[in-house]
Design brief:
- GO terms for molecular function: heme binding; iron ion binding; monooxygenase activity; oxidoreductase activity, acting on paired donors, with incorporation or reduction of molecular oxygen.
- It comes from Sphingobium baderi.
- Belongs to the cytochrome P450 family.
- InterPro entries: Cyt_P450 (IPR001128), Cyt_P450_B (IPR002397), Cyt_P450_sf (IPR036396).
- The protein is an alpha+beta fold.
- The chain has one domain: Cytochrome p450 (Orthogonal Bundle).
- It has a 5-stranded mixed sheet. It has a 3-stranded antiparallel sheet with strand order 4-14-11.
- The longest helix has about 30 residues.
- The relative contact order is 0.18.
């Protein structure tokens, strides 16, 4: 890692602590540059969640905001849109205000008909219909490198498999993936050294998505295709055709969700499995344990950290919150909460009562969760059937990135042919 480009903590862009924030709750946590992230994204967030860490802390970085550090709080805030609004769901605030995708930035009941439009193509019954197609993509990719005895998992599988599946469902060409991936990276990990710079980066990426989807929406309005985009843009909202600005936001959100989250989740999961051959053997030994183990994987490897906007002045957790405050919800900290899961950093395939917010909670629970579960299950089944034992290459150093969606690069795996 090139440390020359990293600012010392004292030089990071920070804001003054507001009068209503008790000094005892202030912690220096930068959600885009976590301390110790070179050792792992989940490990870095776990360092924040110490036994004496308050359930709610405040950081002067990323424009200044609260962070929920316990699973019970994260769950409650997600389920309480009347108190914790989705009108700004990104930190810093400048990025959140530039974000224009729907219905993630809407609250009930306005958001509900748009959510129904998304669910139409991504419900469990629809995803089960395409399981064989999903499986065929995974098999083709794995068999393309299985005989070589090595691959960069992040680049050769995780960065291709869910993207290929999703673009096929949306009826879009695979050659558009690199352009869309660049936009997705700037949406979920916007570049810049200040909140204002990050806001401008996100705004440009958001406009890039809108420019890409506008002609596609126009071409598919009024048609009868079975792809996800056609289904969504021809949905009625409260008995009326969907407005153009909402269609732009909805289709862009669809692409953003399909191109970034599962891609990175898969790589985090495989790094762990490459380092824990005993867990791999357990997965291989029992097909039912593998199926049930998918939920344990989602608990352990949460990747999303979005935010909520405090709707009004209130007291919460014994702390005064002001209207307009932002609360970051690192879903990783729900799954890794030792007060809810014993030995939370360990993947335990026999664990019961698995609780997590990896797909969020409440009205904004992830519409793509059925597709994500299918992709993870298929990956495990088809990979282990062809590459039953594998490790990280000697000296491998995965490169971790924090942000709204965590990412990891450089995941070289090796195995005997």
């Amino acid at each position: 890692m090139n440390t020359d480009s990293l600012s010392p903590p004292s030089a990071k862009h920070r804001v003054p602590v507001p009068d209503h924030v008790p000094a005892a709750l202030v912690r220096e946590v930068d959600a885009y540059a976590l301390d110790g992230i070179e050792e792992g994204f989940h490990e870095a967030w776990k360092r924040v969640q110490q036994p004496d860490t308050p359930p709610l802390i405040w950081t002067p970085f990323t424009g200044g905001h609260w962070i929920a550090t316990r699973g019970a709080l994260i769950d409650e805030i997600y389920r309480s849109p009347d108190r914790f609004s989705s009108r700004v769901i990104w930190v810093p605030r400048e990025a959140g205000e530039a974000y224009e995708m729907v219905p993630t930035k809407m609250d009930p009941p306005e958001h509900t008909p748009y959510r129904k439009a998304i669910d139409k193509g991504l419900n469990l019954a629809q995803i089960r219909k395409v399981e064989s197609d999903i499986r065929a993509v995974a098999v083709e990719l794995i068999e393309g490198f299985a005989e070589k005895g090595h691959c960069d998992f992040a680049k050769d599988f995780a960065g291709v498999f869910p993207v290929k599946v999703f673009l096929a469902l949306a009826g879009l060409p695979m050659e558009d993936a690199p352009k869309l991936n660049l936009l997705a990276n700037e949406m979920t990990r916007p570049s810049g050294n200040t909140p204002e710079e990050q806001g401008k980066s996100l705004e440009a990426a958001n406009k890039g998505f809108f420019a890409y989807v506008a002609p596609i929406i126009e071409a598919r309005r009024g048609s009868a295709g079975a792809d996800l985009i056609t289904q969504m843009v021809n949905s009625e909202i409260n008995g009326q055709p969907m407005a153009q600005d909402k269609a732009l936001g909805l289709v862009s959100l669809l692409l953003l969700g399909g191109l970034d989250t599962v891609v990175n989740f898969l790589s985090f999961m495989m790094i762990y499995l490459a380092r824990h051959p005993e867990t791999v053997e357990e997965l291989r030994s029992d097909p039912m344990k593998l199926q049930r183990g998918v939920e344990e994987m989602f608990r352990r490897f949460g990747v999303v950290s979005d935010a909520r906007y405090v709707a009004r002045d209130m007291e919460f957790q014994g702390t005064k919150l002001k209207a307009g405050d932002l609360v970051l919800l690192p879903t990783v900290l729900h799954g890794l909460d030792d007060t809810q899961h014993e030995d939370a950093m360990t993947v335990d395939l026999s664990r019961r009562n698995v609780a997590h917010s990896t797909f969020a909670q409440g009205p904004h629970r992830c519409a793509g969760m059925h597709l994500a579960r299918m992709e993870v299950l298929v990956t495990l089944q088809e990979w282990l059937a062809r590459i039953p034992r594998f490790t990280l290459a000697e000296g491998a150093s995965p490169i971790y990135h924090a942000g709204i969606v965590a990412a990891v690069e450089n995941v070289p795996l090796v195995w005997e042919v």
